[in-house]
Amino acid sequence: MQHEFDNPLLAQTRRQFFRDCGLKLGAVGLASLLNPLAMGSSGSGTGTAINPLAPKPSHFAPKAKSIIYLFMNGAPSQLDLYENKPTLTKFDRQPIPEEYTKGERFAFVRGTPKILASPYKYKKHGQSGAEISELLPHIGSVADELCIVRSCKTDAFNHAPAELFINTGLARVGRPSMGSWLTYGLGSENQDLPGFVVMLSGGGQPSGGCSCWSSGFLPTSYQGVQFRSQGDAVLFTSNPKGMTPKTRRDSLDALRDLNQMQLDITGDPEVATRINSFEMAYKMQSSVPDLLDLKGEKPETLASYGAEPGKASFGANCLLARRLVERGVRIVQLYHRGWDSHGTSPGDDIMTSLPQRCKETDQACAALIRDLKERGLLDSTIVIWGGEFGRTPVNEARNGSTFLGRDHHPHAFTMWFAGAGIKKGVTIGDTDDLGYFIAKDPLHVHDLHATLLHLMGIDHKKLIYRFQGRDFRLTDVHGELFPKMLA
């Protein structure tokens, strides 16, 4: 379709000028008076592009408003943390029956592997009697708030594809992440912060990289924004040396006007994204420093998380996650790297690295649950804990290594959930005696996504985006609700 501005004669006539003044400016003014947020305005009259993160209605009444996803990057061993299997102890270091491994494709195990019992003791916690490893005493103390699902399954058995699959629903790069779908469908209740925030700890990005929180083919307004623990929390938001706030504001206004002209001509949503990203950056210059300043938190709160102001840690990130959802951010995802435990070296086994990862995260996870509950936020927030897959019930013994470790295992792993719309104090699902295959109540990744969207008030079959001539959704052509975990 040809745009009227493509015709230079129309742009030069008085009649065209007065028509634009009478219709277009009047419509813009009326819309800004009726709903400033819908026009991307902060109330000060700046901005005319539609704000893609403005709050949007859900398909039905939601149980939850926000999600905090504690992603244990590298895949924690469910058999050493949440699944007590006496049969593993009974047949420890004996060859696993061939019926389990015939035709099986492992990442690193070769030959006939031997069964590996957990070296850790289990204890029942709370009125629910949930069995949790001695490595997670703090999480055990909040067991009655948890819904532990021991029958999760995925389609991928290597880190990067599995991380992409559990985040985007596809084991390849290019699809939008769940956080992006949520902000696309619901927007955000805070217009001074991103709707989807990501924080990292434990050393580096996940194997899937920033594609794990990418917006894929959705407009880039919906991608996750990584907050950093040192320097600028978000890159390029602070004023460079010599730039005054007034000069920055004037520059942004000029850029906005130029981009708005281009948006009027092309209708390209990425131009609207550019306008809103500049405005969001400007707002974050004042909102982010206040958010990250933990000095106002009570000493006992800081101690409960194991957080110290100005010092990066998983505990500090958990506390920041609470502060973010408190301010209306839609989804916060914390990646803690280092859960891979193949047993190839002393720092990569279930006797050394696994206890260390638990020590780094256990206290803060429990503190987050308690803190959210005390503030009334657990009634509107879902907390998720889990990795990209599980670990094998056999010792990997790669290249004859004598260190104890487990290979990647997509057939069964454990996640837990807490908060809005989630059943409390229950353990759902089970595996066979060796913890190899799911015995009942399987929860596939697509079903997990469908259920989480449902809790947020979204019908996963109706959250659709047309791209390259086809309708896409987070669950693609799959996904069923998992009612056993719903309150």
> How many distinct beta strands?
19
CATH architecture name of the largest domain: 3-Layer(aba) Sandwich
The number of helical runs is 13
CATH class of the largest domain: Alpha Beta
When the domains are counted, the total is 2
Question: What can be said about the biggest beta sheet?
Answer: 9 strands, mixed
The share of residues in helices is 25-40%
Strand content: 15-25%
Low-confidence stretches: 1-11, 30-48
Overall morphology: globular
| Overall mean pLDDT | 88
Q: Rg from C-alpha positions?
A: 25 Å
Structure notes:
This protein folds into two domains: 4-34, no CATH class; 66-485, Alkaline Phosphatase, subunit A (3-Layer(aba) Sandwich), CATH 3.40.720. The chain has 13 helices and 19 strands. The chain has helices spanning 8-12, 14-34, 86-90, 98-101, 137-141, 159-168, 178-186, 245-266, 269-292, 299-305, 314-326, 353-374, 445-455, and strands at residues 66-73, 114-115, 122-125, 130-133, 147-153, 196-201, 225-227, 331-337, 381-386, 390-391, 394-395, 408-409, 413-419, 426-428, 430-431, 438-440, 443-444, 465-467, 470-472. The longest helix has 24 residues, at 269-292. Mean pLDDT is 88; it is low at 1-11 and 30-48.
